[in-house]
Amino acid sequence: MVTILWGGLGSFIAIVAFATLLETPRKHLFHAGITGAVGGFVYLISMACNKDVVISSFFSALAISFTSHIFARVFKAPVTIFLIAGILPTVPGAGMYRIVYYIIAGNNAMSSYYFIQTLEIAGMIALAVFIVDSVFKITVKKKQ
After folding, report:
1. Which of 41, 43, 59, 68 has its CA 20 to 30 A from that of 51?
2. What sign does the CA torsion over 63, 51, 102, 3 have?
3. What is the pTM of this model?
4. Which tens digit of pLDDT belongs to each residue from 111-137?
5. Distances (CA, A) of 86 to 4, 14, 29, 80, 113
């Protein structure tokens, strides 16, 4: 449990640093960090429950997208300010590295495995963002 908390804290710090590079407004840096920490925390909890990396990425992206939409409405800012920086812990960068590594090493089987897994993770991220965005658009239309 302690490693999960440290992972959440590490996600927070990484997202604040990444949001700074993206020139996120200073007043929203902390909130972008919270968004990333929530995503990292959900990912690590899901992995600790012996879920697949693809499913864990989906749950993490759901949490990040939901938190981004909530923060956007509370702080009256665009969703992308929180979403783009916050999604960093879920992006399959290590998978992309492994694809290239195994291509260079000549191991086509492992390269194909990581290619498929990376595509699945990217698809799950896109699906989660789409689901949450659609739900929020439907609820806003019902209120009007």
Report:
1. 68
2. positive
3. 0.91
4. 999 999 999 999 999 999 999 999 999
5. 17, 10, 10, 9, 27
